[in-house]
Design goal:
Length: 69
């Protein structure tokens, strides 16, 4: 049986882990190096590609709002 670190966590902490991008980075590396992943590799890499774009857009939006005030 394969051990998944996400399955061993309490329910509240596992939700926080799904928001943390490090979870997807480590999961993607684990899947590509060892061949065992909790989530599909394409999902891990797509989250790592989309999340910085979304966060940069939000940062630029809030920065422009801060400068306007």
């Amino acid at each position: 049986m394969l051990f998944s670190p996400l399955d061993a966590m309490a329910a509240g902490i596992s939700y926080v882990m799904y928001v943390d991008p490090l979870t997807y980075g480590v999961g993607g590396l684990r899947g590509s190096l060892v061949g065992v992943a909790t989530l599909p590799l394409c999902f891990d890499f797509s989250v790592l590609l989309v999340l910085p774009v979304v966060l940069a857009g939000l940062g630029a939006y809030f920065f422009s709002k801060m400068e306007a005030d």
